[in-house]
Amino acid sequence: MPRSTAVHPARAQRHAAEAAASGSVALYQQIKDFISRKIQDGSLRAGDRLPSEHELVARFGMSRMTVNRALRELVEQGRIVRVAGVGSFVAEQKPQSTLLQIANLASEIRERGHDYRCDMLTVERVAASLEIAAALDVRTGESVFHSVCVHMEDGLPIQLEDRYVNPRVAPDYLLQDFKQQQPSEYLVRNVPFDEIEHVVDAVLPTAEQATRLQMEPAQPCLLLTRRTWTRGVPVTLVRCLHPATRYHLGSRYRSDGNPLST
């Protein structure tokens, strides 16, 4: 007798939803983004248990195969670990220098027991120059977001941040109240990034930059240029200028790769 080929209605509905989404963000990627965002904003910390496959199937209305693929790729990226018969857990962060991660400047300053303030100087929409268009993979003259701010520690400027943001991945950037959270904190919480590029140069500030940083133009600065991507799409280009006498970049590690206690 031939085997029945009838498909369970709920399963058919899930497959139909996945097929309908094939032209946009893949459903397994939506699960990856959801979990990645929770890890990046601190809602899920190293060692925390993730929802089970069954719970994710119910939450997102997707097939188990889709959920499994999302978890499998997160394992391959080192974000989570899976223990057979136990569950999935957020992976321990690998030791890395502050040059290889996006530091939360506000938290760092407050952890030192000092006062932090972010003075926003510019938040605007501008036409992309040739350089900015190339960095954000948009057309020259296309509209992009631009912000400039000064980060203060105990009332003294320690970083001048000049940022360009791709509106395609952060359309609500200009609507934010950056008195509540600094621009990098907003982007980390709302746009899951999977690639970072950092370049550090020693430079002299322009007269305008020196004025904003309350320093002499002849004094050297460290310029950290950062680009981030999500699924291959550029998110932001930011230049962070630090007076060399007030700020340093780097970390100290033991020979086994683990950070020293501080």
Q: Can you tell me the CATH superfamily of the largest domain?
A: Chorismate lyase-like
C-alpha Rg, in Å? 22 Å
Q: What top-tier CATH class of the largest domain fits best?
A: Alpha Beta
The major β-sheet equals:
6 strands, antiparallel
Q: Which strands sit side by side, in order, in the main sheet?
A: 3-4-5-8-7-6
Structural class, by secondary structure, is: alpha+beta
Span from first to last CA?
72 Å
pLDDT below 50 for ≥5 consecutive residues: which ranges? 1-23
Count of separate structural domains: 2
From N to C, what is the helix and strand string? HHHHEEHEHEEHEHEE
Describe the structure.
- With 262 residues, the chain is α+β, with helices and mostly antiparallel strands.
- It has helices at 9-20, 27-40, 53-60, 64-76, 105-111, 130-136, 183-190, 207-212, and strands spanning 80-83, 87-90, 116-127, 143-153, 156-165, 195-203, 221-230, 233-243.
- Helix 2 crosses helix 4.
- The termini are far apart.
What is the fold's blueprint, element by element?
Blueprint: H1 9-20, H2 27-40, H3 53-60, H4 64-76, E1 80-83, E2 87-90, H5 105-111, E3 116-127, H6 130-136, E4 143-153, E5 156-165, H7 183-190, E6 195-203, H8 207-212, E7 221-230, E8 233-243
Antiparallel strand pairs: 1-2, 3-4, 4-5, 5-8, 6-7, 7-8
Helix pairs in contact: 2-4
Give a short synopsis of this structure.
By secondary structure, this protein is of the alpha+beta class. It contains 8 helices and 8 strands; from the N terminus they run H-H-H-H-E-E-H-E-H-E-E-H-E-H-E-E.
